[in-house]
Amino acid sequence: MIRFKALVLLGLVLPSLPGWTPQAADTDWRVWRGPSGNGIAAAGQEPPTAWSETQNVIWKTPVPGRGHSSPTVVGELVVLTTADDAAQIQSVVAFDRKSGAQTWKTDVHRGSFPAKIHAKNTHASSTVASDGERLYATFFNNEAVHVTALGLDGKKLWQQTAGSLKPKAYQHGYGPSPALYKGMVLVAVDSDEPGFLM
User: Fold this and answer.
1) Distances from the Cα of 175 to the Cαs of 113, 116, 118, 140, 188, in angstroms?
2) Do residues 176 and 185 make contact, with C-beta atoms less than 8 angstroms apart?
3) 2-40: b or e for each residue (b if 16 or more CB lie within 10 Å)?
């Protein structure tokens, strides 16, 4: 995993991924590992095999904070989770998929970061999931894992605590991304304490 400082949209990468055409909402990259859950784009695509600071780059934009989430692409949006370690703020941020301009940023949690996580992890490692109408983000905060639903406009719709997370020996942080199944948001918590699926 790498820390992001900027989101780079590579030419032909997103056009080659499902969902480049905003009208084709059924081809968006709405969850971690894509529409089939296997990390494979639709057949017949021709992604670039070379790029540089300018070659095959459509846009590049700075991302506030740090995170390890993969981009979620839904409609006109590219969405990430991010965290400001100094201010202890966990957020969901959206960019315009055509221009790279930041569309909105919603702060989800303030304060109560875990005292310890692995140096190579971040406080925003889970990828946002979307059903095409809402966005679902999970964060580890205040000794618990929380799931938050946002509208595509970034407005908070609801927030629930999935359950407590109080690791003892393995204080590496949290990384699982939410999954969607038949109208449910599935949240996994694995720990040296009893793990669970909510």
Assistant:
1) 14, 14, 11, 9, 9
2) no
3) eebeebebbbbbbbbbbbbeeeeeebbbbbbebbeeeee
- The pair of three-digit structure tokens given for residue 48, joined into one six-digit string: 């670039």
Continuous segment of H or E residues that includes residue 15: helix 13-16
| Integer Cα distance of 126 and 178 in angstroms | 8
Task: Yes or no: say if 135 and 149 are a contact pair by the CB < 8 Å rule.
Answer: yes
Here the tokens at position 124 are: 């925003």
Name the 3-class secondary structure at 110. Answer: strand
Q: pTM, whole model, 2 decimals? A: 0.83
pLDDT digits (tens, 9 = 90+) for 120-148: 888 899 999 999 999 999 998 988 899 99
> What SS3 state is found at 13?
helix
Cross-strand pairs, 135: 130, 150
Give dist(CA 4, CA 139) in Å, integer.
Answer: 17
- CA-nearest of 140, 150, 145 to 77 is 150
Instruction: Match 């609801």 to its residue by tokens.
Output: 158
User: How confident is the model at residue 16, as a pLDDT?
Assistant: 40
